[in-house]
């Protein structure tokens, strides 16, 4: 809730069409104006028919946020505590914050109720801890050219898919290809030879790639005009 930036309704839901485009005031962060948006993703038959949108911490909300150009507000520190975007809840552990948010809603007379809802909760394969989606800077590989080559190869008969009925799967996958994230946060993952400039005089983030640190430093020195 602390990362919410909008409330979505289905554009065909007559109950809420009059609210589309209106602004809401966040109960704990009054300076944050939340807009009511219309999106086909929302199911009219599930729950209230209104879905709060937290683009920075949910994959589906992220996609909705990108479609509607919503801000992406991260509310978590790396240690699982709430950050400064959380107002009075800053510093609280994520599980503690869930309880205190509910308590504060009750104090403010805004709590309506809660019901059990079956859902999939991602768990870490090693620690079994609950995984929280968080936006982080990543390195990506553009796969569009390779995907186009794969599509063309099958269409021209240079590559045969067996059994043939999997061709539709092949085309659906490659014609809707996404960039490949190569910088997943895995302790056992391959290191990317990219180095970040940490000189305080540079406010804009600068990265340089090299076969080793010395080569990256040489490239940084040449581009930025500073001695190694």
UniProtKB/TrEMBL annotation:
Tell me if Ligase is a UniProt keyword of this record. Answer: yes
Gene3D superfamilies in the record: HUPs (3.40.50.620), Valyl/Leucyl/Isoleucyl-tRNA synthetase, editing domain (3.90.740.10)
Q: Which residues form the Leucyl-tRNA synthetase editing domain?
A: 20-81
Is Electron transport one of the keywords? no
Class of this enzyme: ligase
The UniProt entry's sequence similarity note says: Belongs to the class-I aminoacyl-tRNA synthetase family.
Protein's name in the database: valine--tRNA ligase
Question: What species is this protein from?
Answer: Perkinsus marinus (strain ATCC 50983 / TXsc)
């Amino acid at each position: 809730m602390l990362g919410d930036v909008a409330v979505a309704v289905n554009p065909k839901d007559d109950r809420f069409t009059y609210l589309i485009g209106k602004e809401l005031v966040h109960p704990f962060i009054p300076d944050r104006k939340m807009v009511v948006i219309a999106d086909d993703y929302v199911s009219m038959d599930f729950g209230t028919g209104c879905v709060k949108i937290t683009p920075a911490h949910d994959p589906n909300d992220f996609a909705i946020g990108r479609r509607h150009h919503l801000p992406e507000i991260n509310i978590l520190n790396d240690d699982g505590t709430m950050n400064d975007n959380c107002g009075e809840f800053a510093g609280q552990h994520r599980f503690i914050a869930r309880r205190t948010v509910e308590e504060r809603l009750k104090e403010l007379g805004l709590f309506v109720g809660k019901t059990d809802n079956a859902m999939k909760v991602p768990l870490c394969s090693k620690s079994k801890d609950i995984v929280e989606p968080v936006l982080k800077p990543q390195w990506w590989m553009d796969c569009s050219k390779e995907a186009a080559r794969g599509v063309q190869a099958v269409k021209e008969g240079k590559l045969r898919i067996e059994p043939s009925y999997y061709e539709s799967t092949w085309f659906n996958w490659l014609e809707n290809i996404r960039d490949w994230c190569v910088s997943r946060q895995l302790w056992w993952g391959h290191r990317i030879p990219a180095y970040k400039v940490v000189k305080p005089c540079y406010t804009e983030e600068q990265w340089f790639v090299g076969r080793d640190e010395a080569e990256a430093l040489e490239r940084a020195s040449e581009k930025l005009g500073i001695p190694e």
